[in-house]
Design a protein that fits this description.
Elements lengths: L2 H19 L4 H8 L2 H18 L12 H5 L6 H10 L17 H13 L3
C-alpha cells in the first residue's frame, strides 16, 4: 500500500472504532437515574461545593472518597446538613459553603447527593 492510502486506512479505522465504542457516558447514564432532589443537589455541588470538596481543601471530604466520608457518614444526614448550614469551625467549613444564597433545601439536597456518591 502507498503511504497515503495506508494513512487513510488507519484514520478511517480509528474513526470507525471511535463511533462504534461511543455511547452514553457512565456519568450521563447515572444523571438520568438520579432522583429529582439528587439532581438538584448535584447542581449545587457542581456550582458551589466542588470548590472545596473537589480537592479536599480545608479538610473537606473529597467527593466519592469512601475513606474520607467514612468518618462522617455515621453522624447522619441531619448532622452533616447542620454543619453545612451553620459552618463547621474545626474543619474550616463556612456556613452554606460560602454561598449565602443557598436555601436549607439546596444544602440538604447537596449533602444527600454527596452522601449518595459513597453509599
Amino acid at each position: 500500500m502507498k503511504p497515503s492510502i495506508f494513512s487513510s486506512f488507519i484514520v478511517a479505522t480509528c474513526m470507525l472504532l471511535f463511533v462504534a465504542c461511543s455511547g452514553p457516558s457512565d456519568e450521563s447514564a447515572q444523571t438520568e437515574e438520579l432522583a429529582p432532589e439528587l439532581l438538584a443537589g448535584k447542581a449545587v455541588v457542581e456550582k458551589t461545593c466542588i470548590a472545596c470538596h473537589g480537592q479536599g481543601l480545608n479538610g473537606a471530604p473529597i467527593l466519592g472518597n469512601k475513606k474520607m466520608w467514612g468518618k462522617r457518614l455515621p453522624q447522619g444526614e441531619d448532622v452533616l446538613v447542620s454543619h453545612a448550614i451553620n459552618g463547621f469551625a474545626m474543619e474550616m467549613m463556612p456556613p452554606r459553603g460560602g454561598n449565602p444564597g443557598l436555601s436549607d433545601e439546596d444544602i440538604r439536597n447537596a449533602v444527600r447527593y454527596m452522601m449518595s456518591l459513597v453509599q
